Amino acid sequence: MKGLLESLIRGLGNGSVYALLALGFVIIYKATRVISFAQPALMLAGAVAVSYLAEVTGFYAAVLLSALLIAGVALAIERIAIRPMVGRPVFVVAIITLGIDVVVRVVVNAFIGRDVRQMGDPWGFTQVSLGPLVVQSRWLAMLVVTAVLVGLLFAFFRFTKYGLAMRAAAFDQEIALAQGVSVGMVFALSWGLAGFLAAIAGMFVGTGQGIEQLTWVVALKALPAIIVGGLDSLGGAVVGGLVVGVVESLFQSYQGEFAPWLGQNVAVVSPYIVMLIVLLVRPYGLFGTREVERV
């Protein structure tokens, strides 16, 4: 039981990072109906920015500055590359975001170099005791920070005029325009928020283990999270991220003992196995909106 609980805490910690990335995907999708494949690059850029700024300002100030910096980069990407594509087929815009991802990663890789770049975080692999349980400090930090950010994000959408404008545009852009909502502002704000969350997620991905040129692959686990939770559900993104993290952690802990015949490194593909199962049972996700076509 002790090992199971420790595995669950590890999964919830890593799942919190996937949830932050998934929220970025969903926020952009709800606003623009486009899946942004630039999130992995923004995550990597945020992690690298933290590693450099931490040498100058200290770690916590570096995290805030980097998140704001990457939010600004995301705003610039939206204004320069995405805004002119409004009205074009969704597939075309999605491909453009894929190209943006490649370009940003090539630039960021030049700052990483060939060696692993350390984050300079205060947690590393240090462990703390929670009664009989021994868990890494960074997992608890991931859970706490994600809980705070998710709470602030939901409060933003519910109680601020900009959040209400984003909800209105997500519901129906034409009606929102008729009511005086600036859909362009909504597009920009969605990219800015996604960039901010990606930078925070990138910081956590690099804690303890550092950053290398292939760190961006971690962000791909957010794709099963948004499919599991529902592509247009913010709450679903959080739940999906946590589910993916827990399943991955349980496979890491117990697959070798209970199902060795599956081979090695099954935990790596376990998020996609969960995604396929959900697609077969509930194609629009656990909390996604079921689309009904009337003919």
TrEMBL record:
<keyword id="KW-0029">Amino-acid transport</keyword>
<keyword id="KW-1003">Cell membrane</keyword>
<keyword id="KW-0812">Transmembrane</keyword>
<dbReference type="Pfam" id="PF02653">
    <property type="entry name" value="BPD_transp_2"/>
</dbReference>
<feature type="transmembrane region" description="Helical">
    <location>
        <begin position="225"/>
        <end position="247"/>
    </location>
</feature>
<keyword id="KW-0813">Transport</keyword>
<feature type="transmembrane region" description="Helical">
    <location>
        <begin position="259"/>
        <end position="281"/>
    </location>
</feature>
<comment type="similarity">
    <text>Belongs to the binding-protein-dependent transport system permease family. LivHM subfamily.</text>
</comment>
<dbReference type="GO" id="GO:0006865">
    <property type="term" value="P:amino acid transport"/>
</dbReference>
<dbReference type="GO" id="GO:0022857">
    <property type="term" value="F:transmembrane transporter activity"/>
</dbReference>
<dbReference type="GO" id="GO:0005886">
    <property type="term" value="C:plasma membrane"/>
</dbReference>
<feature type="transmembrane region" description="Helical">
    <location>
        <begin position="59"/>
        <end position="77"/>
    </location>
</feature>
<dbReference type="InterPro" id="IPR001851">
    <property type="entry name" value="ABC_transp_permease"/>
</dbReference>
<dbReference type="InterPro" id="IPR052157">
    <property type="entry name" value="BCAA_transport_permease"/>
</dbReference>
<feature type="transmembrane region" description="Helical">
    <location>
        <begin position="139"/>
        <end position="159"/>
    </location>
</feature>
<keyword id="KW-0472">Membrane</keyword>
<feature type="transmembrane region" description="Helical">
    <location>
        <begin position="12"/>
        <end position="29"/>
    </location>
</feature>
<feature type="transmembrane region" description="Helical">
    <location>
        <begin position="180"/>
        <end position="205"/>
    </location>
</feature>
<feature type="transmembrane region" description="Helical">
    <location>
        <begin position="89"/>
        <end position="112"/>
    </location>
</feature>
<keyword id="KW-1133">Transmembrane helix</keyword>
<protein>
    <submittedName>
        <fullName>Branched-chain amino acid ABC transporter permease</fullName>
    </submittedName>
</protein>
